[in-house]
Write a structure and sequence with these properties.
The complex is a heterodimer of chains A (179) and B (183). Chain A has 179 residues and is mainly alpha-helical. In chain A, 79% of the residues lie in helices and 0% in strands. Chain A is built from 8 helices and no strands. The mean pLDDT of chain A is 86. Chain B contains 6 helices and no strands. Chain B is elongated. Classes of the chains: A mainly alpha (179), B mainly alpha (183).
Chain lengths: 179, 183
């Protein structure tokens, strides 16, 4: 009898823990979606709506898309975004990357940019990731002030090299996709 | 009067298009996002985030063998379990000379998993979803792109870790030299 009781108790506790964790996870997900995802969707929809309705989209399709529809164009874009002075300004909240990504998305949708450029494009819009956040990120890792002094320029310069390289790597890795 | 009506219709037209886009995004993305995030968040809560501390200690070791652990495995686990921005706290296990490179590596991992694990950074979901949506609308399967984005992400963070480690080592040397000659 005692054994059975013990078993039931263990099962009950285990189930309670799992259900509790799942319920809490659901609450977290809903919170995240409401506070972070939905507002951004509203903002992105407004921009896309205006672009599509006013004809700016056609202008982009005619003049800017041909630039993005080549490896060279994407590499140039990544170099510009990775310029050590620009990259910390373009970083915050990844807003710029998200807007450029969405604009490119509208061009992929219409076929103005061929789909096989999707992978390099994902890296071309993002060489500045986290460049605005280096001191805080290093502080979270309990770095000394001297490390921050070296770390900020080191990361910024590194991006200027690894940004374009990542685009080329992505281009090579996208062979055989969407063709 | 006619012109006024035309202007009003044009004005509303801007937002009708936006509204359609919005409902498309909400219906197409949100349900999957919520269920997937719930699953992964529950999984993380059950496993416990302290389990990856051991990897942090392992990654602090010297030697070429530990590069992939320091700049591929640890950044991914940190981002997966702790998400943006708490992932960067894993840098505390590493010696100072590796910290800038680890940050560079970890922060570059907060977007590549978004196609498969959106819980790592839902607030910046459109870095991935902007382009992915366009691909879906063009009639392609987006899964292939999601996997390749993640895999290339791994290669890129390893590369960033190594390059940034080298650059910071050179800069440290340069900072030390003038002081040494002054003595």
């Amino acid at each position: 009898m005692k054994r059975i009781n013990k078993l039931l108790e263990t099962i009950g506790r285990g189930v309670g823990r799992v259900v509790g964790a799942m319920y809490q996870a659901g609450r977290e997900s809903i919170d995240q979606v409401i506070t972070n995802v939905l507002p951004f969707m509203a903002f992105i929809s407004l921009i896309i709506g205006i672009i599509l309705a006013t004809g700016v989209g056609d202008w982009i399709a005619n003049y800017l898309s041909p630039l993005a529809a080549s490896l060279l164009g994407l590499v140039v874009m990544s170099i510009i975004i990775a310029i050590p002075v620009l990259s910390p300004l373009l970083g915050p909240g990844a807003v710029i990357a998200q807007i450029i990504g969405t604009l490119l998305g509208t061009q992929f949708a219409t076929g103005a940019i061929p789909a096989q450029y999707a992978l390099p494009a994902l890296f071309a819009i993002n060489p500045q990731v986290g460049c605005d956040f280096i001191p805080v990120g290093l502080a979270l890792g309990e770095a000394e002030p001297e490390t921050v002094e070296v770390g900020v320029p080191a990361v910024l310069f590194s991006r200027f090299v690894t940004g374009p390289v990542s685009v080329v790597l992505a281009y090579l890795a996208s062979f055989g996709m969407y063709q | 009067m006619e012109a006024l009506v035309k202007a009003a219709e044009w004005f509303i037209g801007l937002f009708i298009q936006g509204g359609q886009t919005f409902s498309g995004l909400v219906v197409g993305i949100i349900p999957l996002l919520i269920v997937l995030m719930t699953f992964v968040n529950a999984l993380i809560a059950l496993i416990g985030t302290d389990k990856i501390d051991a990897v942090g200690k392992l990654a602090a070791r010297e030697g070429i063998l530990y590069y992939p652990i320091r700049y591929m495995v640890l950044p991914f686990l940190a981002v997966f379990f702790l998400t943006n921005p708490m992932a960067y706290t894993m840098g505390r296990f590493l010696p100072e000379k590796y910290k800038p490179a680890f940050y560079d590596s970890a922060v570059s991992m907060v977007h590549p998993p978004l196609g498969v694990f959106p819980h790592v950074n839902p607030g910046e979901y459109f870095v991935w979803a902007g382009i992915a949506n366009g691909i879906t609308e063009a009639g392609y399967n987006v899964g292939d792109l999601a996997i390749r984005y993640l895999l290339v992400g791994f290669v890129v963070i390893l590369l960033r870790g190594i390059v940034t480690e080298r650059i910071s080592a050179i800069m440290w040397k340069r900072e030390e030299q003038p002081e040494a000659s002054a003595v």
